[in-house]
Structures are given as structure tokens and as C-alpha cells.
Amino acid sequence: MMKNNIQRFAKYYNYYSGVKMILSIDIGSTTTKFVLMENNEIIDYKIKDLGVVIEESDVLKMVEEFKKGRNIEKTVATGYGRHKISFADKVVPEVIALGKGANYFFKDADGLIDIGGQDSKVLKLKDGQVVDFILSDKCAAGTGKFLEKCIDILNLDKELNEYSSTNYAKISSMCAVFAESEIISLLSKKIPKEEIIMGIYDSISNRIVPMVKRMKLENIVFSGGVAKNKILIQVLEKHLGKTLLIPEEPQIVCAVGACIMALEKP
Asked: Which residues form the signal peptide (predicted)?
């Protein structure tokens, strides 16, 4: 529904090229997100897998697509690979942009969980401003990459969200390498894949929850591609004892925040 509404906005605004807009580019470790905003409204967005090694020329092609029939006043870059974009008018830190984006979608948010490809972040917010944060980037466990690696090992034959169980396989290691070895061992013992997946979700939650509790958060936004995983959301909510706030498109939170930062400052 959100995408359809945005597309209708885009068609309308294409006729008015005099309207000045902001385009943000959030270069993550696995995907690149583009968001077009004007007067605090999302006009259009795209999520692209441009590969692990981002070529500026590929990003520029996408930017040129957005520019057709539009008057883009400023381009702002954020995310893991933000410094790779030499043509950006502005570069903003990912953590600050996430806070702004969380506040855009949920005004009462006082915290955010972002599980990215390379790291996990928990932010403490006040009116969209980041007042404290914890970054977990020393080990891949608890990241999107870790989840992808586990899926590869399991060799799943259906969508990840279709696997669920009331039983959790025990994955005790907090290290990604050892956790992967545990998963292989569980498979050799004929433990059902559903139970192993639930164990993986439990392991990820066990890394995130202490970070959240340390921050003493109540209204928590969950962002990033992993926030589309409904079963993981359920496991994480069970651990937290709270209902998470999920945007309709959780992958664009950082890019939206970057646009807002560009609109706020000259």
C-alpha cells in the first residue's frame, strides 16, 4: 500500500519539475536504498542490490533515473559506504540519520534497533535526536550477514518466514564462526530445520536484548531488512516483553532520516 501511494505521488510531482526535492542514498553493506522527499513527504523510493563492492557509476545511473522530470535540489549520502559517493552534496552519519528516520515514522519512539549486514545498533532517542547508542560490530553474530550465512548452511527449500516451531534448538555460542559449526552439528543430528532457525532467532535476540535493556527503552522502532522477518520479530518481542514499532518499509528508515537532515540544514 505504501509503495502504491508513493508511486501516485511520484506521477503527480513529475508534472511539476519546478518543485525542489531531496534525494538520499543509503549505501549499506548488502543493499543500497534511494529515497526522494519534498516538504517532508516521501515521493518515491527504491531498494537495490548493487553488490558488495559498490561502483559509483552504478549509483549514478540510479540517480539519473530519479532526476528525470524532477528538480532535485540536493543529493545526500549516508550508510556504510557513504564516503564512496563523491558527487553527493552532503554526507551524514548513519546513526544520526537513523534517529531522524525513526522519529519521522513514529513520533513517540525513544529507541531504535537496527540489524544491518555488518553490525547491529541500538539507539536511545529523544525527539529524534540520538542521545546514546551501542554498536555491536566486533562479531558477525547478530547481523544480517550472519542470518544469510546460516540460511546458506541450512539450504532452505522455502521462504524463511515459512519456517516456525515452538521448539528452539540450542545455539550457545555468541561467536558467528562457532555458531555456524553448531548449526552444522545440529543438522548432522537430524534436528529439524524449523527448530534450528528458531534457535538462530533466539541467538540473535540474546545479543540484542541486553543492549536494549541497558538503554532502558520503551517505544522501540525496528529497522533494516531483517525487520521484515515476522518470526524473528515475534521472538525478539517475546524476549523484550514489548511490541516493536515496524515501519511499512523498514529498510528506508536511514535514507528518510538523511533526507530530513538535508532539509533541516542548508
From this structure: none
